[in-house]
Amino acid sequence: MGFVNLRLGAHVGQQNMTMTALRNTWRTLDEHLDWISAWDHLYEAPPAGGTVDHFEALTILGAMAADTVRARIGCLVFYVGYRTPGVLAKAATTLDHISGGRFELGLGAGWHEQEAKAYGYDFPSVGVRLDMLDEATTIIRSLLTEPRTTFTGRHFHVEDASCLPHPVQDRLPIWIGGVGEKKTLRMVAAQADGWNSAYISTSEFARLSGVLDEWCATLGRNPAEIRRGVNLSFNLSTTAAAATAMRESMQSQWGPGFARIEGGALLGTPDQVIERLLEYVASGADDINIALRAPWDADVLHTYLHEVVPAVRAASGPIRPS
Description:
TIM Barrel, about 20% strand, alpha/beta, two-stranded antiparallel ribbon, 13 strands, 8-stranded parallel barrel, 11 helices, about 45% helix
């Protein structure tokens, strides 16, 4: 048994929206949620060959930091192949100052090969990308906390580098995203303040969280130091009939990937979604984020913010089930 510090948030894809609509969305979410994030893509997701309007992540985070006043903000997650660790560290500390100490840095190994190749980036094997993530995390942590950093790796290096000013926060949280059991979760245990997963079921979330605990034990890390988060596809409906139609729409959108996505989707009526969110809390989730892809139904989002979120907060209480 332990005390819950549950954060409910939104992971907002900056695509298929005007900048005005995007900024208005952040301001609304800031009134009700604890966390708002962007994603680090150059093309739309799911991939559609760069046919959908899409804004760049670091740039919009500056606006998000200025537009919001209470929610924690970040990106889940930056692909370390698009920017050097030094640039990410400088951006992180800058965003922390703009936001008054509310920024959290998410890092990952990337997956959107289509956009990477379109923009002229190498997209090596996943093993190489994970090695890049490990090196980048090491460098960034040092830049954000130490006066000077020198590091020479296979993929990245810095020489006597400073990152001034340091962040507002004494320890700016670093999140690592991914579900790989052998490399990613070991990296989380070794270096991260938070672990983010996406579109996985409650049972899989609990299982992987247990694997993370095992890595913590192996490396001598206190597992309670690491927050556990999950992003869930937002598919709330107000009626059972609408929920059925939503499921059919998702099947068409995701194709063969739907079976995986469904396990981590909030499908159903408000009461069903509340029950599902509480199952994630019981499975060990500290952060639960709805993934918003425009267009969405404004009335449905209003129901989530004004009915579902308060109900989950009230029902989760101060104690997490063992």
